Amino acid sequence: MRPVAILGIGQTKIDEHWDKSLKELAGEAAFAALNDAGIERADSLFVGNMLSPIINHQNQLGTHIADWVGMWGAEATKIEAACGSGAAAFRAGLMAVASGEMESALVVGVEKMTDMAGHDVTSALATAADADYEVEQGVSFVGLNALVMRRYMHEFGWKHADFAPFSINAHANAMHNPNARLHQTITLEQFEKSSMVATPINLLDASPIGDGAAAAILVPAEKLKGRKIMVAGSASATDTIAVHSRRDPLFLAAAYASSKRAYGMAGVTSAEIDVFELHDAFSIMSALSLEACGFAERGQGPRLGLDGEITPKGRVPVCTRGGLKARGHPVGATGLYQIVEVVQQLRGECGETQVADARIGMAQNIGGSGATILTHILRVTD
Predict the structure, then answer these.
(1) Between 286 and which of 34, 46, 259, 280 could a Cys-Cys bridge form, CB atoms 3.0 to 4.6 Å apart?
(2) What single string gives the DSSP state of each residue in 331-355?
């Protein structure tokens, strides 16, 4: 397998884009990535998306978007892995280029979620859970995470307020990201007084949905000269789709497995990661991800936030552009937003939230309640 580099990136602002269709959002991000890369088209197109058949009534999304961006004749396909669809598409594009089958790949993550009523979107998101043994029993996606968070707090003795730093950090960082959906800081008091969604998860524990698209161009590293953003590690792993079937519902086994393989491929340890774009769909997932990936001891994930270690100037900078919590979570696009944001950090383009001397970054995208987890490690080489 040959080494692969990221040549270009692009993204849209996450918002309620009433005036843009699904393909228009995808095209905006795709053209931005192509322009950034300095090329007119790629040999192949991989689209990460979860909900287009349900919300947008559109299947065959690969061809649909290839047609829109003028990539007629190119291989194009949609990749679906629930909320992990963006990273799954990125990995598919990576393997296509690394294998030598393709000389370039355009990877786009896109989701348009706000055209449907909130309760219908909640039902659509629930398709990432076990239809027979979770959804059929009436439990929602946020409900599953609430059950996990409640048990975690019981087992390890944390209070709900101890999770506040994850949300506070995300909102503070989003203030400096023009593409983020939420541009307001929050306080501990606001976090504690926020309205409850599914006890103990309140509104400020949870990420907002939105419409958006992000994209990246992958090419063989040998074709580039000078400074490169290399894909140093890539791995995907799964766990049971139903939370209750897991050996330990409080440990993200798929995060552990995929990060371990990605670390091995990149030849690094967690201590060498300069920036970590984790999947903070809910604040409990931030704690569990940090533990599974080796940044915190078991049951001690919230300690990193409480000790100020997750800020851009901390030991483990996370969600430096706002994360899912404040940048927003257009589910099928989220994995590509994470990749784009790590590239921005490694290029030194993050302004007030720039991590000093960032050379190695990691992005981890989660599908469902930890059922599919993909980890990518990027590295700058001169």
Answers:
(1) 280
(2) GGGHHHHHHHHHHHHHHT--GGGPP
**Helical spans, DSSP H, in the chain:** 22-37, 61-68, 85-98, 118-125, 141-156, 164-174, 188-193, 253-266, 283-292, 301-306, 334-347
> How many other C-beta atoms lie within 10 A of the C-beta of residue 223?
11
332, 128, 45, 327: which is closest to 342 by C-alpha? 327
Rounded Cα distance, 292 and 248, in Å: 12
Kindly report, residue by residue over 21-50, the tens digit of the pLDDT. 999 999 999 999 999 999 999 999 999 999
Query: Residue holding tokens 């602002």?
Result: 13
**pTM for the whole structure:** 0.97
- CA–CA separation, 106 and 108 (whole Å): 7
Q: Kindly state the tokens that stand for 98.
A: 């690394």
- Longest Cα–Cα distance of the chain, Å, equals 57
Q: Contact, 115 vs 56, CB < 8 A?
A: yes
Write the CB contacts of 263 (distance below 8 Å, at least 6 apart in sequence).
233, 269, 270, 294, 377
The CA distance from 161 to 46, in Å, is 40
Residues marked as catalytic:
83, 329
Pairing between strand 275-277 and 360-367? parallel
Q: How far apart are CA 382 and CA 369, in angstroms?
A: 38
Residues 103-136 have pLDDT tens digits of: 999 999 999 999 888 889 989 998 999 999 998 8
Nearest CA among 58, 56, 55, 179 for reference residue 118: 55
| Ordered structural domains, the chain, with CATH | 4-117+209-223 (3.40.47.10)
